[in-house]
């Protein structure tokens, strides 16, 4: 059997008489595939547009893979992953590997090609795409497998072995990575028609034979290792699921013989029961744990780690952009080695580096000091290797010294710590839980006196279409090619257009359209201190789509008002109420790279206090309706149930901090872009907003219980009456029917009528017709009340 062999500290004399120890092993869970300058994105989009052919796409992909493997090999990484590249998504790759293509895509047999693959990912002229959802608590989205009793599995994509061979041809021996069978099945959904009656795990016996074929294929290609990613183990699995887990791996035992097997877990610690199940597996050579998010893992390992097995210690954070504190990691590794034995620890990343930015080298705008505190994927590979090397006594002293200097500079920098902000937060939190003093029903009455809105008031969520013109104007202003006066004038004209349109349509509570904003988080981050922005810090969100999260590096303050100028200008254009439009603290936090030197909630409270100042300034300026978007509150929910309450408590508290001090007559709206919050409804009510608008159009029934709670609570509720994600224009009748359905559950006096999210991705032609039908529907039903 191949050598597992990491660190035999064999001291060989060198020519100059020095001795060198062999390094402890190093491993990378996975690597970003989008490319340092989003090369894959552009290649994909050009291919999809028919501008370039398959060859060009494949060449770009092969070049990316090659440079990634070479980078890891040159850095000295021992266990280099392959098959972590993907043209769209690794779950979809697994669906292809298993031949689990839903029948509507018309595939029957043979190797799955780009046509079928991209149809599943993006839909085609006649069939819509498969559903996409968030990968655990990251901002990465995967294509959800649809499985039912009729799926005929077959080995239909040889990508894993092809990538292994490709690397081998380059002289690089890799560890092929597969999504493990349990994670694959438990992240699937039952196909249409069997939604409520099908047990996904019942398919395990059908997919394992395919996994075995893949393993055989890999072995004959010369693979010596296999990595199964089983992050599902960090979730709350029940006993029968855990049993199925051990059965699955026991079942594969004969196929795994002759291979070294790594089971990688990540994103949290593995619960005690699951840890026992996992570490009892016989056929496994090594276990991977996230030691950045997994706070209990160390304790579990202390209690028991199987003798002779390898521990892949994920000490380098795959989800953030901070340079590793190398000496702290070294201590952790040392402690682990003392427990599990010499040569049994492999230095690794906490999870795939997919969730961090690609390469710091391309950041030319960040200042030197800030840059010295950061490490993107390419730099993290070097960190992993440096840790591994130093572990065996070959410490790169210069690198360690510079690392500790950089850590110290970050710790003591006045840009990071602002004592008065910290004092403000501490003082603010001592006081109360920040609740408005009047209950919502009374507040709504006071507001209604002032606003005098009709029943079923109509509104929109904030943004209007972001035309090419608007983008150009913002770009030119930013590049200083346009004067401030011209910029303000151009924006004013845009606002006027949006206001006029809404008045003509007969909308009751207006918005200014957000033309001045590029992005709902970046816009605020750019005006707050403590935030930095990268030029190329892209992270894949789904397919070719990437996001560039701001970096929160220091205590947050609001040097001056951020939206008051624009909101007042817009309010002056109309007699109707104009909503002030803000992004809430939890969303700003969840969509940024967050500091790791203080708890998330502390950073969140700082942002909340900054937004509170903005709310007060808006109120002072005569804005009577203020919307504070918390689009991302739900997605920050921790993976494990035991941690939900703590998170929801502080997240909701942070929201209340932003607006607890407004007058009864000021109406606070919030908007959330998701609908599956049955489990967090009490927290949403606890936000104590006056009006809640939510996405709804894709999941009617699920919301019913939310509505019912809403009735009891008494706040206004605006479940989206049509889907803005689609260019389709709903008729007035269709919208009226939706409103009627809602009225079957909700009192008319609490119901608002609005689309289910902002309109920025739509065309004006679509928006005009859809909103006109929406207002017509509201009027129709009003007349019947
Ligand atoms: N106010 C924002 C907009 O309309 C809200 C966007 C969101 O919820 N994602 O664009
Ligand atoms: Zn939304």
TrEMBL record:
EC class: transferase
Span of domain Cobalamin-independent methionine synthase MetE N-terminal: 26-339
Keyword Lipoprotein in annotation: no
TM helices/strands, residue ranges: none
Signal peptide residues on this chain, from the entry's feature table: none
Species per Swiss-Prot/TrEMBL record: Microthlaspi erraticum
InterPro entries associated with the record: Cbl-indep_Met_Synth_N, Cobalamin-indep_Met_synthase, Met_Synth_C/arc, UROD/MetE-like_sf
Catalytic activity: 5-methyltetrahydropteroyltri-L-glutamate + L-homocysteine = tetrahydropteroyltri-L-glutamate + L-methionine
Cofactors, names only: Zn(2+)
Record's function text: Catalyzes the transfer of a methyl group from 5-methyltetrahydrofolate to homocysteine resulting in methionine formation.
Pathway note: Amino-acid biosynthesis; L-methionine biosynthesis via de novo pathway; L-methionine from L-homocysteine (MetE route): step 1/1
Example GO molecular function: methionine synthase activity
Any Gene Ontology biological process: methylation
UniProt-listed SUPFAM superfamilies: UROD/MetE-like (SSF51726)
Domain Cobalamin-independent methionine synthase MetE C-terminal/archaeal positions: 456-779
Keyword line: Amino-acid biosynthesis, Metal-binding, Methionine biosynthesis, Methyltransferase, Transferase, Zinc
UniProt-listed Enzyme Commission number(s): 2.1.1.14
Protein name, per record: 5-methyltetrahydropteroyltriglutamate--homocysteine S-methyltransferase
Source species, domain of life: Eukaryota
DNA-binding listed as a keyword: no
Similarity comment: family membership: Belongs to the vitamin-B12 independent methionine synthase family.
A Pfam cross-reference name: Meth_synt_2
């Amino acid at each position: 059997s191949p050598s597992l062999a990491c660190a035999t500290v064999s001291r060989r004399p060198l020519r100059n008489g020095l001795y060198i120890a062999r390094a402890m092993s190093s491993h990378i869970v996975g690597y970003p595939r989008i490319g340092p300058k989003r090369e894959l994105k552009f290649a994909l989009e050009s291919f999809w547009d028919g501008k370039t052919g398959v060859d060009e796409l494949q060449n770009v992909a092969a070049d990316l893979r090659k440079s990634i493997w070479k980078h890891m090999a040159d850095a000295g990484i021992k266990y280099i992953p392959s098959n972590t590249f993907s043209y769209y998504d690794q779950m979809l790759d697994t669906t292809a590997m298993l031949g689990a293509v839903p029948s509507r895509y018309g595939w029957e047999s043979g190797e799955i090609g780009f046509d079928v693959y991209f149809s599943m990912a993006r839909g085609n002229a006649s069939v819509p795409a498969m559903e996409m959802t968030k990968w655990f608590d990251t901002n990465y989205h995967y294509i959800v497998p649809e499985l039912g009793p009729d799926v005929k599995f077959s080995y239909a994509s040889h990508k894993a072995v092809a990538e292994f061979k490709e690397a081998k041809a380059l002289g690089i021996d890799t560890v092929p990575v597969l999504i493990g069978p349990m994670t694959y099945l438990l992240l699937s959904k039952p196909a249409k028609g069997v939604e409520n009656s099908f047990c996904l795990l019942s398919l395990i016996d059908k997919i394992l034979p395919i996994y075995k074929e893949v393993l055989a294929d890999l072995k004959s290609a010369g693979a010596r290792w296999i990595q199964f990613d089983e992050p599902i183990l960090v979730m709350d699995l029940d006993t029968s699921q855990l049993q199925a887990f051990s059965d699955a791996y026991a079942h594969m035992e004969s196929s795994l013989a002759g291979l070294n097997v790594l089971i990688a877990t990540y994103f949290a610690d593995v619960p005690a029961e699951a840890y026992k199940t996992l570490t009892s597996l016989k056929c496994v050579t090594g276990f991977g744990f996230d030691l950045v998010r997994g706070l209990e893992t160390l304790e579990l390992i202390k209690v028991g780690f199987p003798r002779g097995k390898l521990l892949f210690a994920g000490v380098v954070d795959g989800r953030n952009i901070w340079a590793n504190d190398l000496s702290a990691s070294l201590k952790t590794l040392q402690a682990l080695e003392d427990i599990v034995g010499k040569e049994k620890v492999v230095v690794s990343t906490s999870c795939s580096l997919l969730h961090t930015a690609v390469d710091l080298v391309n950041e030319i705008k960040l200042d030197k000091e800030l840059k010295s505190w950061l490490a993107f994927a390419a730099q993290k590979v070097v960190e992993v290797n440096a840790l591994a090397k130093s572990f065996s006594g070959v410490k790169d002293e210069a690198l360690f010294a510079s690392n500790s200097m950089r850590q110290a500079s970050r710790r003591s920098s006045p840009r990071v710590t602002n004592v008065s902000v910290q004092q403000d937060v501490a003082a603010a939190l001592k006081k109360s839980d920040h609740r408005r003093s009047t209950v919502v029903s009374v507040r709504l009455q006071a507001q209604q006196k002032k606003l005098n809105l009709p029943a079923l008031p109509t509104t929109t969520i904030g943004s209007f279409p972001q035309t090419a013109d608007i983008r150009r104007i913002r770009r030119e202003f930013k590049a200083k090619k346009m004067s401030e006066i011209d910029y303000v004038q151009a924006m004013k004209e845009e606002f006027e257009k949006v206001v006029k349109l809404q008045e003509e349509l007969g909308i009751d509570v207006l918005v200014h359209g957000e033309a001045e904003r590029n992005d709902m988080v970046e816009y605020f981050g750019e005006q707050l201190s403590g935030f930095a922005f990268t030029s190329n810090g892209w992270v894949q969100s789904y397919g070719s789509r990437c996001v560039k999260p701001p970096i929160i590096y220091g205590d947050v303050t609001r040097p001056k008002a951020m939206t008051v100028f624009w909101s007042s200008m817009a309010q002056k254009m109309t007699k109707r109420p104009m909503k002030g439009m803000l992004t809430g603290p939890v969303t700003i936090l969840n969509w940024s790279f967050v500091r790791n030197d203080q708890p998330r909630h502390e950073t969140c409270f700082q942002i909340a206090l900054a937004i509170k100042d903005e709310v007060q300034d808006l109120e002072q300026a005569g804005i009577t309706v203020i919307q504070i978007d918390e689009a991302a509150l739900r997605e920050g929910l921790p993976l494990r149930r035991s941690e939900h309450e703590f998170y929801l408590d502080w997240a909701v508290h942070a929201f209340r901090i932003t607006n607890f001090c407004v007058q009864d007559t000021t109406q606070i709206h919030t908007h959330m872009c998701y609908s599956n919050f049955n489990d967090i409804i009490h927290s949403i009510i606890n936000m104590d907003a006056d009006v809640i608008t939510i996405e709804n159009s894709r999941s009617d029934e699920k919301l019913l219980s939310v509505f019912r709670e809403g009735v009891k609570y008494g706040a206004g509720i605006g479940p989206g009456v049509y889907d803005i994600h689609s260019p389709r224009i709903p008729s007035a009748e269709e919208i009226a029917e939706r409103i009627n359905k809602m009225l079957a559950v909700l009192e008319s006096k609490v119901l608002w009528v609005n689309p289910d999210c902002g309109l920025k991705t739509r065309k004006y032609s679509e928006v005009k017709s859809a909103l006109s039908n929406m207002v017509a529907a509201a009027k129709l039903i009003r007349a019947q009340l």
